[in-house]
Amino acid sequence: MAEGSSRLVVLGSSGAWPGAGHACSGYVLEHQGFRVVLDLGYGTAVRLLDHLGSHAGDGVDAVVISHAHADHMGDLHAFFRARHFGAPAAPAIPTYAPQQVRDQLWEVQSIDGPDDGAMDRVFTWHQLPSAAYPVGPWRLESAGLPHYVTNAGVRLVSDDLVVAYTGDTGPSPALAELGRDADLFVVECTDYTQLAEPKKEQLHLNARTAAEAARDAGAKRLLLTHFWPGVDRERTAREVAQTYDGEVLVASEGMVIAL
Ligand SMILES: [Zn+2]
After folding, report:
1. Which long-range contacts link 232-239 to residues 24+ away (Cβ below 8 Å)?
2. What is the distance in A from the centroid of ligand 1 to the CA of 172?
3. Residue 97 falls within a domain, yes or no?
4. What CATH number does the domain containing 61 carry?
5. Beta strands 247-250 and 162-165, pairing class
6. What's the domain range around 65?
7. pLDDT digit string (tens) for 41-54?
């Protein structure tokens, strides 16, 4: 990773389950030579290891998991195994997540027997949402957002860059603060409105509510992601542009966004 290059790499852009050609939520944020992984949903681990060029998952400085649904952490266990078996003597990776994320990971891992400390050798656990943490060049701020389970929206602030990420959320005034003046606001846009029988949904966003969140935040760029499989993403983006004046990006696997 070049010291001077700042970028976000999309590992996956699908909500709920991985669509054909799409993994679920996962992103890599690289800034000032420091690499943060944001969510590791279904199908993201192989893409992360490809990106790192390491079977052992070497090169990750911190992990942030927004919430304990498997489309955001299903491959955290794959990454755990990469570290546990592939780099057993490596230092633990600072990991920031709601308690339920650790609990869910343990549900998968515990089939191997009583706790032998591996979970804490691979990761050092820090609670979200929480007061701010220093994380490499960033100040990691977080806010609880409305979802079925505890979901931490995160805001990473450095000297010269602000990147915010909603995880999964319904409409909330907190979104405007989370993404305030962000250089890049990564916003879930599940967009049930395109389904033949749209669900009545208060705990996800659609084109209108995602656009309102980015507009109210004054975000400079908006990355739409976490689309329900089958959603016409370009249609969603066109609808978003009716409400939000900034640059609208549509997430896809392998996409690299220079920051
Ligand atoms: Zn989700």
Report:
1. 232/194, 235/194, 236/189, 236/191, 236/194, 236/206, 236/207, 237/207, 239/207, 239/208, 239/211
2. 17
3. yes
4. 3.60.15.10
5. unpaired
6. 7-258
7. 999 999 999 999 99
Average pLDDT over residues 45-70: 98
Q: How many domains does the chain have?
A: 1
- Compute, in angstroms, the gap from residue 5 CA to the centroid of ligand 1: 29
For residue 169, report the distance from its CA to the centre of ligand 1, in Å. Answer: 9
Distance 224 CA to ligand 1 centre (A): 13
Q: Separation of 259 CA from ligand 1 center, angstroms?
A: 25
Q: Summarize pLDDT for 154-191 with one digit per residue, the tens.
A: 999 999 999 999 999 999 999 999 999 999 999 999 99
Q: Which of 186, 144, 160, 182 is nearest to 38 (CA)?
A: 186
Q: Report the pLDDT value the prediction gives residue 200, as an integer from 0 to 100.
A: 73
pTM (two decimals): 0.97
Question: Residue 16 domain-assigned?
Answer: yes
Q: How far is the CA of 235 from the centre of ligand 1 (A)?
A: 20
Ligand 1 centroid to residue 213 C-alpha, Å: 18
Buried b (16+ CB within 10 A) or exposed e, 152-165: bbbbbbbeebbbbb
Q: How far is the CA of 3 from the centre of ligand 1 (A)?
A: 32
